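Ticket #4471: structure export looks truncated?
Reporter: QA, pipeline team
Priority: medium

Steps to reproduce: submit the single chain below to the structure queue and open the exported record.
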Amino acid sequence: MPEIRVITRDGDQQSIVFTPGTTLMQAITEGGIHELQALCGGVCSCATCHVFVDPAFAARLDAVSDDEDGLLSGSAHRCEQSRLSCQVRLTEQLAGLLVTIAPEDE
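Actual output as written to the record:
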């Protein structure tokens, strides 16, 4: 099974097995990391599943949608690597993906 690597807010790194076709948000939460609030349940209407994607994987992801871009623009922590994990669909090509959970916006 393919895996992703997740760096938590404490700096710990965990490997998580994922099923292709699930979202990054689902893999993280089902993998036992509960730092993502994911208040909207993955329908791209909040930004509480914000992560930073390792630049080495950026070209393998679909482009940021207008909705995702709008939600990320409200985050004080947005950067070039910012994505909403609910909008990243995991595929075999993303095996080894490294993401860092973004700090919470207050």
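Status: closed, not a bug. The export was complete when the record was re-opened. Leaving a note from the reviewer for reference: The chain has two helices and five strands.
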